[in-house]
């Protein structure tokens, strides 16, 4: 009996800690539902008195969020697909062999993973402008972003491939499969879940990307939601309810994906990040 | 019968270089080399070349007229001399150090405390712990927007809470007071990174054999002694990896600066990675932007080398 009570106490403490930690998220949703005058009330109301459910539709139209979110989806999807196509094969080979060349390639990949985007954007921008890539700015962002996200993807997916026994592929070769066949029909299906979770992580990362888009995409029509949010937050803004509504619309899909796939994301991350 | 046919096929393959090439693509190492060569070529083109180009630009005179050509006037170390003789350089570098040290300390200590708490056995521990990671998957700009509002001077909820519990008597203008602007970004960054630290540290804690604790408890060691003599020594490798990852991620932080303070007021919250972008894309001084970038990339690479070396056995799997 005593253990149960201790456990209940611990559970209560854990829920309190989580509530404290996640308070900023709660505050975002609550603020978005308040009226323009209620947000400046002292003391602040922790539950809105008169929830303004219309705010989301209002802000969606006011800021043209459909276009911003579409651009975010285009950039995130393009980055995810390109990263997955290029990164999966790379991760597979890096998991299957072990020699000096593989060590060098791994070291290269790890090194490229750590380069801060805000420092790399200067040469990338100048180089892209010389190559004429700035005429297709969303494509340019996808290219630059793929180079940024791929090392992380390779590290995660490599960990997945290492848990697939290579004996299965050897068996497939003995059974008359070609090398491509063994990769395509044996290794890939077995690593499918790990690849999928890593790809979703890349999607979420690219969906929130800011510095490349801000620097490369000048036309407002082609900018993603992160740049739109930045433009919405002027230095002396007072419409915090509208800004929080924008933020809520932007972040809710990501939170939904995260809550649905939480277990897989956490385990995928922990298996790859420290290895 | 079968064997002789294969032998003939093999001989034919050897005779024809193209079909031998195709065969190796399908059956041999050629396929593997192709799988790894294309992505690496892509990475070298879009990360390696910009890296080299960055260094080259830091030794050139770059302006609007020479932006379109690769052959710009060579100026040697002029850009470096110019950057390091600017009055704002040293305060910004000092800010960078404060930002990195305070962020890592905050993220690590809170993350470690939470990780230890969640090693205790109670229902739902794993699920609740996982919920903390939402801070990590959120777009940086959204986190910045929320903290902008929480930290607002007149109507921010943090000031209200601090006043209610009697910690402060006057509102703190977190974003516009030069004494606090950097700390506004640090608070947001600690919130952002704590969960990631916690998860990695929790993995390390889970790998410590339980019988060590049981043996120590039998010997009469209390919880405090067990922490110092078992937990910390066993976690040394994990802690090293987490701290160097923290350094790498903290030096990548840009979104929070862009959304909370824009480096202001008067550069009081500016750090090197934001300043480099500001020089290039606000003042269009690409040469100086490249110069700061080169210096900072060097710092990051040194940190990364330490990280790779400290986790070397794990990297090789």
Automatic annotation (TrEMBL), chain A:
Belongs to the binding-protein-dependent transport system permease family. It comes from Devosia nitrariae. The keyword Transport applies. It is found in: Cell membrane. SUPFAM superfamilies: MetI-like. This is Sugar ABC transporter permease. Keywords: Cell membrane, Membrane, Transmembrane, Transmembrane helix, Transport. It is a multi-pass membrane protein. Residues 69-261 form the ABC transmembrane type-1 domain. It holds the Pfam family BPD_transp_1. The keyword Cell membrane applies. The chain crosses the membrane at residues 9-29, 68-94, 106-128, 140-161, 182-204, 243-261. CDD domains: TM_PBP2.
Automatic annotation (TrEMBL), chain B:
Residues 93-307 form the ABC transmembrane type-1 domain. It is a multi-pass membrane protein. Pfam families: BPD_transp_1 (PF00528). Its main location: membrane. It is found in: Cell membrane. The chain crosses the membrane at residues 33-56, 97-118, 130-151, 180-206, 227-249, 286-308. Keywords: Cell membrane, Membrane, Transmembrane, Transmembrane helix, Transport. InterPro entries: MetI-like, MetI-like_sf. SUPFAM superfamilies: MetI-like (SSF161098). It comes from the Bacteria. Belongs to the binding-protein-dependent transport system permease family. This is Sugar ABC transporter permease.
């Amino acid at each position: 009996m005593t253990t149960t009570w201790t456990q209940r106490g611990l559970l209560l403490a854990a829920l309190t800690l989580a509530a404290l930690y996640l308070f900023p998220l709660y505050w975002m949703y609550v603020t978005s539902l308040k009226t323009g005058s209620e947000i400046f009330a002292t003391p602040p109301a922790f539950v809105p008195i008169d929830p303004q459910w219309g705010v989301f539709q209002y802000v969606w139209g006011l800021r043209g969020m459909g276009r911003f979110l579409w651009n975010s989806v285009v950039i995130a999807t393009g980055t995810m697909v390109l990263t997955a196509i290029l990164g999966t094969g790379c991760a597979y080979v890096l998991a299957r062999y072990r020699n000096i060349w593989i060590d060098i390639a791994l070291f290269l990949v790890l090194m490229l993973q750590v380069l801060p985007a805000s420092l790399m954007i200067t040469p990338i921008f100048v180089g892209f402008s010389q190559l004429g890539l700035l005429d297709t700015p969303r494509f340019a962002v996808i290219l630059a972003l793929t180079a940024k996200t791929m090392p992380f993807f390779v590290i995660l997916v490599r960990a997945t491939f290492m848990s697939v026994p290579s004996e299965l592929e050897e068996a497939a070769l003995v059974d008359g499969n070609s090398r491509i066949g063994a990769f395509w029909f044996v290794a890939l299906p077995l690593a499918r879940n790990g690849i999928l979770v890593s790809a979703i992580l890349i999607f979420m990362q690219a969906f929130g990307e800011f510095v490349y888009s801000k620097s490369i995409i000048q036309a407002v029509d082609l900018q993603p939601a992160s740049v739109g949010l930045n433009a919405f937050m002027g230095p002396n803004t007072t419409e915090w309810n509208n800004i929080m509504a924008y933020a809520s619309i932007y972040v809710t899909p990501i939170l939904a994906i995260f809550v649905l796939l939480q277990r897989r994301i956490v385990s995928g991350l922990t298996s790859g990040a420290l290895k | 019968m079968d064997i002789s046919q294969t032998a003939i096929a093999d001989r034919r393959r050897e005779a024809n270089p193209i079909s031998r090439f195709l065969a190796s693509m399908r059956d041999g190492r050629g396929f593997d080399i192709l799988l790894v060569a294309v992505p690496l070529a892509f990475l070298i083109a879009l990360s390696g070349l910009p890296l080299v180009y960055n260094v080259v630009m830091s030794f050139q005179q770059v302006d609007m007229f020479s932006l379109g050509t690769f052959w710009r006037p060579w100026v040697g170390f002029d850009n470096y001399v110019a950057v390091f003789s600017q009055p704002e350089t040293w305060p910004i570098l000092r800010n960078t150090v404060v930002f990195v040290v305070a962020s890592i300390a905050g993220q690590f200590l809170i993350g470690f405390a939470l990780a230890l708490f969640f090693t205790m056995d109670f229902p739902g521990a794993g699920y609740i712990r996982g919920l903390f990671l939402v801070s990590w998957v959120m777009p940086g700009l959204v986190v910045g927007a929320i903290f902008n509002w929480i930290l607002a001077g007149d109507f921010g909820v943090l000031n209200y809470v601090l006043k209610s519990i009697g910690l402060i008597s006057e509102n703190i203008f977190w974003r516009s007071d030069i004494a606090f602007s950097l700390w506004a970004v640090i608070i947001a960054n600690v919130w952002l990174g704590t969960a990631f630290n916690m998860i990695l540290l929790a993995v390390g804690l889970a790998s410590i054999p339980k019988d060590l604790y049981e043996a120590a408890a039998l010997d009469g060691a209390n919880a405090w002694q067990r922490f110092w003599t078992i937990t910390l020594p066993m976690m040394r490798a994990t802690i090293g990896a987490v701290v160097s990852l923290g350094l790498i991620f903290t030096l990548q932080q840009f979104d929070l600066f862009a959304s909370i303070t824009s480096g202001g007021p008067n550069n009081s919250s500016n750090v090197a990675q934001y300043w480099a972008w500001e020089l290039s894309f606000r003042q269009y001084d690409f040469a100086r932007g490249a110069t700061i970038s080169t210096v900072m990339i060097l710092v990051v690479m040194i940190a990364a080398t330490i990280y790779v070396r400290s986790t070397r056995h794990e990297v090789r799997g």
